[in-house]
């Protein structure tokens, strides 16, 4: 068997009228990524020579999305200025492909769940028929509710005869449950030859790619059908209801995997939202209504309470995230406790055993080992040492109206309630600020300061800080 090169062509120029959206259909997100990205990733897994993407509606944005998934030299964008149907979309790539001695795998940008293994099976069948010269192998499935899809009509011998679109089908044809997935493997040159003979005399006045296999058959070519068993993979997204259903299917798959393969307890799998790239460690417990998304990794033995969303963050082992927290691009080391109602913004780092509590916001700051900020506090652009306590209502005043400045707080510091730290400013190890202090200048180590602006009123012995109530 000669091995022809494989190219992939993805159709992604349509607007997707049924989405009732100003956003092109293939840019709508599933599991946090545009539909087109799912298809591109699957295509790349087959290691084709090149991926051609037909773009039209919001083509620039679609190109941009594709390039976040595929290397530029690997992709050829083909513009379809007017969307005259799937056949016309394929025809837009004629100049690149019509003389190629290759196999062309055609995918739809709106069929995102298809797996690379399934496509590999389709290609294998196509190649095994090549001895008999299959010009096209199409992927079909049988559905209980085939409404909306093109139906596969077989001849009396059970072989491929033609595809009929829903809108062109007779009542009898509509009864057929076997549908066209919109995924095909073609002998490239034969595809373009047959495509020249396709007209737009149909209910939608479009050039249908689905007419090509019948044209081939009439010309005496072999069209083979690869019938697949898993219906969920070929579901196309044409409206928002289908989008929501696939989202739920994907989520269930991910949550099941966490439970079955990774030993995660999920209290209510129906109301837990976990993205496909998230990892969660053994014996972690996820309470209802938690969202874990993007590039998030959570360690072993953690507890994530209801209403929390964690995005693009690292969470170590034994961490407790209480109710209603938001973590975005944060790093949380082992045995920390967060929340309820805390907000860790990008660049927030909690060292081992640190605690951040009620209504505390942390941005681009490090909170050292076993340090705490338990109530009503803003920590921005700060470096805080170990075993330090930040009292209720403390604010790092990091912004002077023009620039951001850094606050540095040492180890074993006690910041009193309602302290304002006017950055840039440093508080030395072992120092204490009284309630309502406004710190405008650096404080040396082991000093007790009070007032606005802060004044040092005495030096503190090493035993003193223990006497000061942390106000837990
Ligand atoms: C298509 C098939 C149908 C199949 C179904 C599977 C045709 C005529 N029908 O129908 O048999 O059951 O997919 O999901 O092919 N596109 C373009 N340019 C166009 C038109 C469409 O690039 O001019 C793209 C769309 O962006 C989309 C894909 O082609 O990604 C499929 O188009 P869509 O309109 O969704 O076709 P269906 O009605 O779903
Ligand atoms: Mg479709």
Output the structural class.
Answer: alpha/beta
**What fraction strand?**
25-35%
Number of strands: 40
The termini sit apart by 75 Å
- Summarize the biggest pleated sheet: 17 strands, mixed
The bound ligands are: uridine-diphosphate-N-acetylglucosamine, magnesium ion
User: Tally the helices: what do you get?
Assistant: 9
Average per-residue pLDDT, rounded, comes to 95
What is the CATH third-level topology name of the largest domain?
A: Spore Coat Polysaccharide Biosynthesis Protein SpsA, Chain A
The radius of gyration is: 30 Å
According to CATH, the homologous superfamily of the largest domain is Spore Coat Polysaccharide Biosynthesis Protein SpsA, Chain A
What is the CATH C level class of the largest domain, in words? Alpha Beta
> How many distinct domains?
2
The CATH architecture category of the largest domain equals Alpha-Beta Complex
Instruction: Categorize the overall geometry.
Output: elongated
Share in helix: 10-25%
Low-confidence segments, given as residue ranges, are none
Give structural attributes:
472 residues, alpha/beta, Spore Coat Polysaccharide Biosynthesis Protein SpsA, Chain A, UDP N-Acetylglucosamine Acyltransferase, domain 1, 2 domains, nine-stranded parallel β-sheet, 32% strand, binds magnesium ion
Describe this structure as you would to a colleague.
This protein has 472 residues and is an alpha/beta fold. It folds into 2 domains: 6-234, Spore Coat Polysaccharide Biosynthesis Protein SpsA, Chain A, CATH 3.90.550.10; 240-459, 3 Solenoid (UDP N-Acetylglucosamine Acyltransferase, domain 1). It is 18% helix and 32% strand. It has a 17-stranded mixed sheet that branches. Strands 14-17-20-23-26-28-30-33-36 form a 9-stranded parallel sheet, with no helix packed on it. A hairpin with a 2-residue loop joins strand 2 and strand 3. It is elongated, with a radius of gyration of 30 Å. Magnesium ion binds at residues 110, 236, 238.
